[in-house]
Structures are given as structure tokens and as C-alpha cells.
């Protein structure tokens, strides 16, 4: 999955670079690249958004346990619930390689910033 996310970030930057080189491209080609760029940006944002929602639901489950009277349950039920409580006390973002890549809105922002920096660097080298 790391390779997939790496290439997704690279494709995002290349789409952005194509949009900046729009002077020698026909309007139809520019429209096509623009639609592809927004579709890909939406895809990448939606994956990061779903990861944030997963963490938000995790926090809601943790609050629900805190507000419930789970301590009053039977011993076996309390033991089973302790495993679940331990699980919901940690952040639950989508992550890869033991947390090397954590998908969140901040990750999406980092991708956009890195893509913008890469495009500026490539444009400086072309001129």
C-alpha cells in the first residue's frame, strides 16, 4: 500500500504540473486534464476523509464506553469489554508500515504542499 500511496502522490504532482503548462495545450486537452486532476484530488481527499471519520467514530465509541455503566456487567462481559476499550483508546486512522504513513487531512495537506513545491521546482528548471 505504501507504493500505491507514493505513486498517488506522484500522480497528483504530475497532474498539477500539467495544469501549469497549459499555454501550448488545446482547450479540450486542458479541460480533460482539469477534470482528471479534480477527480484524482477528490479520490485522494476522500480516502483521507474516510480515515478521519474512522478516527471520529473511534472517539465516539470511547465516549460511549465512558458514559455507560459497563463496570456493572458480569465478570466475563467486563473482561471482553476491556479488550474493546483498550482498542478504542488509541487513534484509529488508516496507516501503513506501522504508522509510517498515517492517512488524515494533514497528510492530504502535506501532499498538496509537496506537489506545489515540486511543480515550482520543475518550472524553475524548465525556464
From TrEMBL:
It is a multi-pass membrane protein. Its main location: membrane. It holds the Pfam family 7tm_6. Residues 1-22 form the signal peptide. GO terms for cellular component: membrane. The keyword Signal applies. One of its GO terms (molecular function) is odorant binding. This is Uncharacterized protein. It comes from Cacopsylla melanoneura. The lineage of its organism: Eukaryota, Metazoa, Ecdysozoa, Arthropoda, Hexapoda.
Amino acid at each position: 500500500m505504501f507504493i500505491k500511496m507514493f505513486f498517488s502522490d506522484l500522480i497528483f504532482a504530475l497532474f498539477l504540473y500539467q495544469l501549469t503548462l497549459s499555454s501550448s495545450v488545446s482547450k479540450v486537452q486542458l479541460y480533460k486534464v482539469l477534470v482528471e486532476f479534480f477527480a484524482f484530488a477528490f479520490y485522494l481527499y476522500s480516502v483521507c476523509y474516510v480515515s478521519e471519520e474512522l478516527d471520529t467514530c473511534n472517539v465516539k465509541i470511547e465516549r460511549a464506553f465512558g458514559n455507560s455503566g459497563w463496570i456493572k456487567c458480569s465478570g466475563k462481559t467486563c473482561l471482553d469489554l476491556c479488550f474493546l476499550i483498550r482498542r478504542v483508546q488509541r487513534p484509529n486512522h488508516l496507516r501503513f508500515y506501522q504508522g509510517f504513513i498515517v492517512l488524515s487531512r494533514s497528510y492530504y495537506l502535506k501532499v498538496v504542499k509537496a506537489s506545489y513545491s515540486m511543480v515550482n521546482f520543475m518550472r524553475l528548471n524548465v525556464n
